[in-house]
Amino acid sequence: MTFLMITGRTVNQGVTVEKKTSAAYAEETSTCFMHEFDMLELGLADQDTVMLTGVCGTVVMRAVASGEVEMGTVFVPYGPYANHIIAADTHSTGMPDFKSHEVEIEPTDEEPKTVHGLMEDLGGLAYDR
Amino acid sequence: MNELLIKNACVIDPLRGINAETMDIAIRDGRIVEEVSGAAEVIDARGALTLPGGIDSHTHICGTKVNFGRYMSPEDMRAGRTPRRGPLHATSGYSVPTTYGNSYRYSVMGYTTLLEGAMAPLEARHTHEEFLYTPLQDTMANVLFDGNWGVMEAIRDGDIKRVAAIIAWTLRAVKGFGVKLTNPGGTEAWQWGKNVSCIRDPVPYFEVTPAEIIRSVVEANELLHLPHSVHLHCNNLGTPGNYTCTLGSLGLIPDLNRKRQTLYATHVQFHAYGGSGWKDFCSKSEPIANFVNMRPQIVMDMGQVMFGRTTTMTADGPMEFNLYRLHHDKWSNHDVELETGSGIIPVTYRRKNLVNSIMWAIGLELALLTKSPWQCLLTTDNPNGAPFVRYPEIVALLMSKRYRDAEFATVHPDTAARAPLPAIERELDWYEIAVMTRAGQAKALGIQDLGKGHLGPGAEADIAIYPLRIDEIDPSIDYRKVIEAFGRTEYTIKRGRVVARRGECLVDGSNATFWVRPKVSEAYDMGKDPDFIEKFDRYYTVRMRNYPVQEEYLNRNRCIETEAEI
Amino acid sequence: MIVKDVVCPFCGCLCDDIEVEVEENRVVAVANACELGTTKFMGEERLKGPILRDGDGWKEITYDEAIRYAADTLLSAERPLLYGWSGTHGEAQCVGVHMAELIRGVIDNTSSVCHGPSILAIQEVGHPGCTLGVVKNRADLVIYWGSNPIDAHPRHLSRYTRYADGFFLENAFRDRKVIVVDIRRTQTANIADEFVQIKPGGDYAVLSALRAIVQGKTETIPRTVAGVTREQLVRVANLCKGAKFGAVYFGVGLTMTRGKYKNIRNAIELVSELSRHTKFTISAMRGHYNVYGSNEVNTWMTGYPFGIDFSRGIAFYNPGETTAVDILARKECDAALIVGSDPAAHFPRRCLEHLAEIPVVQLDPYPNATTAFCNVQIPVAVTGIDAVGTAYRMDGVPIRTRRVLSTDYPSDRDVLFQMYALMQEVRGR
């Protein structure tokens, strides 16, 4: 199914933002908040893993039901998971489309990667794994 | 020990009554001395005009609103830029240059001391941060009290000593130099989207009038024995017919100080308008100048307008909104809690516009009709009337009737019927120009005893040598040479060191900041006043302990202590 | 020992009433701060000393070695990028600008990916704003548009708006109306008097509709605009016109969505329009505690708030060209210095792929996502905890942070100044 992905700040993202290699930060920023009807449609229960596919890649997150999002949109806290599939085009403003990205979402058996794992996929080397 | 000897200088030093005498100036360790050793470095001035370093007693160069003028105007930043070169940093901007841009361009014109005309106390730290990056001039800041709640409440209670005490506490906290009133009462009314119409119109809720604010703050200023007088931007700036309001404001001022004026009225050009609207707008420079001629207690500055593009910025928020409604260009406004406000819009003054042409004439008329140059100082209210780089043209206009006539021929043809300028024959001389650009400022600011604005032994060695032999040129005819010379010194000397030469700055410097600490008795220390503390805690959004500007923000710390009468 | 009036170095609220209890040079308790601030003060495992990427591993090096490495790396770059800056003090930002100028680099701060579009809008139409205390003391109407303070600026509501009594409002909760405009029903929406839910991407249309109603052209409005009914739009417009003092606080919900700076421009023009009827102000909810300071410092030193390119010696500004995401995505820079931010967590993947290919030096107290891309990371003192310096609140009020702990970590300013001094030796003054 196609969704509009919105990213934004949350308290938990903020609380863990200075410990980005922690499990808590990974858990918060790999959460895909969805409308429960959309989850029903995809046969998802809370904490099930989902594969998000954007124009420039895929990433695995966990789905969580939320009353804050409308059907057809999903909310993902700012962080490396959402950015793994966000395009870098800024339309000459300097600002990527952090809040208006079309993504395909489907259930998956894969587990979300760690933040270290994501960084190493892109050519980095984890320090304190 | 650092010694310098300037030989064969043609000196005009009005504070010492010296008018075009050829002499030597000896400098040791940044100050002027009687004589130096034979080892001193020598500069031969070859008879060139030599003046104390220029002082701008009203300019907007540093702080929140100035920086916002840059922030919102990339088009202005692009209009003047230089690369990093040697010890010099890159600069940007034309009407609101970056701090380095301001400092280098003023220095090339021979200016060594600048007074920032309006600093909101809550945001004073910002002004001081920018001063740190204004390396080639000494700096000081006027502190805004026009909408200060504590001051207005004390006035309502009839307690002038408390007004003085609040001013004293604030000046010390924010490292300020002088007391500024910008549209007194109007900036508070503007926080409700309103304004005051003139000096008898009460401020909403506080129920004090601008007249009461002006009189009380003038009295408080003298109780504190501050070096500078109250610095007033009158109500009603820029509106047709406002000259009556200006005369009313000036009429409130008694003569309270033997050493200097009791009131400094700033950018009076913007306050000298006749007419009942834009259609019959006209100059009222004559009644204003006549009034000032009879009152030694008043000093004003011109606020000259020059044609071209600039940026207007003032604490007078409601005025800027009115201007925005005329120009429909971009508009910024910034109200400051419990204190004051500000507004910014870009403008272009055009020769083809009748109102702009009359404004241009009025500034010159004020300077030419005021008999004593000590009472009308040269400014553009930088950048409101024009960027300061236009000063040399203004000097030439004041010195040459021929130049004025040539310019007048290019302005709106109806100007002659609305402004007396064409009939004025007076041409100012070199001495008068020296008064209007440095000596008068030093006296008005009360800093001549600190060694500013003159070249006597003990004075700070801030000197401008212009590439000009006054015995060889007639400014009335050779006005182009005057413009060129005042735009580019042969040498600018700051604290005994050559900082600019023939249009090029040579060194990175470090400014000194002058500020005032009035000594008050225990009973009038607002830092210990329970009512003051309680209101501070309740209504400000910054803690009282975090409000004062620390001394870390001063490069060279020049604290002036005064003995207050409270 | 309890340190009072401490300044919180987390978000743009820059709360300065925090009380921090310190025992044996450790923070043991924090009072008055929100959850975000408390967590920051309580601290985390910091990097002990500088580290150097060594093949497939890491090794510890001295500060001198790290600083020398950083200076050499940047000096040998043809197009260095100096990015971050909102998580450090102004004094360090100033050294950063001088450094960018000396090595002809590009200096950009995190506002290019938060309120950069707001700045572009301000450069078109200006900004009628005010300090937070003006709102606290006067505003009888506050609008949060595309901002969610409960999550991002938790004390904004209690210090300045919903729950903050002021001089002209004895009972703020009763006398002050709060409107929330968002595409999501956020926590903040739940405490609003009026919640306006917009379809994603519909902000521009809704702002235009409100402008039309304020101008008296209600008849031109269709039955719904981006999911908002005409009745609600009229009600909101009337609340605005009827207010004695209205304040709009907008967030990245407007800057990051379709339309970007045009949304902000429209919001500012709505406020300028309302100013003809009553008092109205608008301000951005700035994120990092000193992101506004980086704009201020850059502006007085270079003329521009962000995205400044010194490659030609002069300061050159062209957002979309001279901004960090674009420069990385175009694989243009050949070295990067990162100070006080974590681009690897916040930039699109394409940018990270380039970071992996170039030498990167980072100044940051903590191991973070960007660490993985570093050749060298230099741990520094945390401004507001073990370093002092100037920060600018979201409304432009500058505050000097306090030190609550003393550690041996150097400040950002100290490290940068040493780097700059080494660079000056090579490049001359």
Helix and strand arrangement:
The complex is a heterotrimer of chains A (129), B (566) and C (429).
Chain A: E1 2-8, H1 11-15, H2 23-29, E2 31-34, H3 36-42, E3 49-54, E4 57-65, E5 73-77, H4 80-83, E6 101-107, H5 115-121
Parallel strand pairs in A: 1-5, 2-4
Antiparallel strand pairs in A: 1-6, 3-4, 3-6
Chain B: E1 3-13, E2 18-28, E3 31-33, E4 41-44, E5 49-52, E6 54-59, H1 64-71, H2 74-78, E7 81-82, E8 91-92, H3 99-108, E9 111-119, H4 124-132, E10 138-144, H5 149-156, H6 160-174, E11 178-182, H7 186-190, H8 210-223, E12 230-233, H9 243-250, E13 263-265, E14 273-274, E15 282-283, H10 285-293, E16 298-301, E17 308-314, H11 317-327, E18 332-335, E19 343-349, H12 354-369, E20 376-377, H13 391-399, H14 401-408, H15 415-418, H16 430-445, E21 463-466, H17 479-487, E22 491-494, E23 497-501, E24 504-505, E25 512-519, H18 530-539, E26 556-563
Parallel strand pairs in B: 1-4, 1-5, 6-9, 9-10, 10-11, 11-12, 12-13, 13-16, 16-20, 25-26
Antiparallel strand pairs in B: 1-2, 2-3, 5-21, 7-8, 14-15, 17-19, 18-19, 21-22, 22-23, 23-24
Helix pairs in contact in B: 5-6, 6-8, 9-10, 10-12, 13-14, 13-17
Chain C: E1 2-6, E2 18-23, E3 26-31, H1 35-42, E4 51-54, E5 57-60, H2 63-75, E6 80-84, H3 90-103, E7 106-109, H4 116-125, E8 128-130, H5 132-138, E9 141-145, H6 149-152, H7 156-159, H8 172-175, E10 177-182, H9 187-190, E11 194-197, H10 203-214, E12 224-225, E13 228-229, H11 230-242, E14 245-250, H12 252-255, H13 261-274, E15 279-284, H14 291-302, E16 308-309, E17 316-317, H15 324-329, E18 335-339, H16 343-346, H17 349-355, E19 360-363, E20 376-378, E21 390-392, E22 398-400, H18 412-427
Parallel strand pairs in C: 6-7, 6-18, 9-10, 9-14, 10-11, 14-15, 18-19, 19-20
Antiparallel strand pairs in C: 1-2, 2-3, 4-5, 4-20, 7-16, 12-13, 16-17, 21-22
Task: Please describe what this structure looks like.
The complex is a heterotrimer of chains A (129), B (566) and C (429). Chain A has 5 helices and 6 strands, in the order βααβαβββαβα. Chain A is an alpha/beta fold and 129 residues long. The longest helix of chain A has 7 residues, at 23-29. Chain A has one domain: Beta Barrel (Barwin-like endoglucanases), CATH 2.40.40.20. Chain A is globular. Helix content of chain A is 23%, strand content 29%. Chain A has a 6-stranded mixed sheet. Chain B is α/β, with parallel strands linked by helices. In chain B, 31% of the residues lie in helices and 23% in strands. Chain B contains 18 helices and 26 strands. In chain B, the strands form 6 sheets. In chain B, strands 1, 2, 3, 4, 5, 21, 22, 23 and 24 form a 9-stranded mixed sheet that branches. Chain B has an 8-stranded parallel sheet with strand order 6-9-10-11-12-13-16-20, sandwiched between helices. A 3-stranded antiparallel sheet of chain B has the order 17-19-18. In chain B, strand 23 and strand 24 form a beta hairpin. Chain B starts with a strand and ends with a strand. Chain C has 429 residues and is an alpha/beta fold. Chain C folds into 2 domains: 45-113 and 289-427, 3-Layer(aba) Sandwich (Rossmann fold), CATH 3.40.50.740; 116-284, Dimethylsulfoxide Reductase, domain 2. Helix content of chain C is 36%, strand content 21%. In chain C, strand 16 and strand 17 form a beta hairpin. In chain C, helix 2 (63-75) packs across helix 18. Strand 18 of chain B pairs parallel with strand 8 (128-130) of chain C.
